[in-house]
Amino acid sequence: MKTLNFKDIIKYTKKGSYEIHLDWDSISDYIERKTTNLKLDINPDFQRGHVWTFDQCVAYVEYKLSGGPDAEILYFNCVGWMHDYRGPFVLVDGLQRLNAVRLFLDNKNRAFGHYYSEFTGPLQCQFKFNINNLKSRAEVLNWYIQMNSTGIPHTDKEISRVKELLQKEK
Hints:
alpha/beta; 5 helices
């Protein structure tokens, strides 16, 4: 059997080297500025559109409001980022999460039975905006495929089985 050197494994596209943290309540302003100034496209043709159900949007927002780790990085690409910003500037991954949060912030869905406007105190949730500067559309499409064709999501049946185990523990 032929051996394989680890260095010969084709590596995934690296994430961008520029990253900012934005509080949820400042996201809409940031996106509006970038849409105006840099022609940010948050729904490019390769995105699958808004496919999360109402319940999935609520579940995500509640997960993050409860301090759920992970699922907070939104990936963008802009050719010429930090140089000439020539674009295009596109959201590559994170549309569903972004949409869920914006619906909540716009009082179009609830979390824990309440609209955003019915909460008090500081909103302590952030997204990380990671911006890459891949040079071609083909590189961006390949990056999207890499991020969205790996991993195996759990089925409802698998989650239900573990919930039953949890009930037995209580």
